Amino acid sequence: MARTPTTHDPFNAVAEPRRRQLIQAMGEEELSVNELVELLGWNQPSVSKHLGVLKQVGLVKERRVGRQRMYRLNAERLKPIFEWVAPFEKIWSERFDRLDVVLEKMKKEQ
Amino acid sequence: MARTPTTHDPFNAVAEPRRRQLIQAMGEEELSVNELVELLGWNQPSVSKHLGVLKQVGLVKERRVGRQRMYRLNAERLKPIFEWVAPFEKIWSERFDRLDVVLEKMKKEQ
DNA sequence: ATATTATATTCCTATATAGGAATATGTCAA
DNA sequence: TTGACATATTCCTATATAGGAATATAATAT
To answer: Same domain, yes or no, for B88 and B69?
Structure first.
């Protein structure tokens, strides 16, 4: 068996470095495929294919404008990742009180 | 070409759901392999193999005690994931001021 | 020395990619 | 309708798994 498909799980989709770049490149603004091609310097099919994966997993939304397709980030899909990793931040961060409580809560929550 | 190895990149290592479980199971306390086997209900080789990956990528530390091997989380290795995803939290969170500033900063930083 | 306990490793297989190259599809302009 | 532009898709291949089964290694006890 191989890994769970990138097209179903945000964790997996984001495990690919180029897709993280793509997500970050979009940031706030809606961009066309060509704008992303220029911005990132990849070839067009690469950009389209990675956008396809991100779209399937729901990390980006697409809007058609003439012959262009505008993509924008759907940041809420990143929420599960943030929520999974955030509790651990307490561990390496200096600013915490009562580590034991934090960790107990963390374990209870999942 | 396939994906970048799970043994080199925390994002990739954590893309596997069972490894996330494992990390969470360890949480605060150091646990032996057998304790993890019982806790998670997997077979022993599965636990050992996933621990092996986590160890290679630096997400856990191992300590030998007699015939046992005690594993504990090295949470700092999760920092890059937190730092990558955290800025996006501003987007879906209600409690933010001046989204434009946040996003501009986000883009500048990488 | 031998059995037992604890854990790691090896072998095998099905499968999911990521990237390159080439091509197809869709849309607009003249 | 023909060409140019914008984007998606298909085909191909090398490779990295994850899981199961069986086995190996290591350490302790008797």
So the answer is: no
Beta-carbon contacts of residue A46 (< 8 Å; ≥ 6 apart)? A18
pLDDT tens digits in sequence order for chain B, 110 residues long: 767 777 789 999 999 999 999 999 998 899 999 999 999 999 999 999 999 999 999 999 999 999 999 999 999 999 999 999 999 998 988 555 455 555 565 566 55
A2 in any annotated domain = no
Question: Do both A63 and A83 map to the same domain?
Answer: no
User: Half-sphere exposure of residue A41, counting CA atoms within 13 Å on the CB side?
Assistant: 0
Using an 8 Å CB-CB cutoff, list chain A residues near B86. 82, 86
Count the domains in chain B.
Answer: 2
Contact with chain B for residue A110, Cβ under 8 A: yes
Nucleotide nearest to A35 (CA to C1'): D6
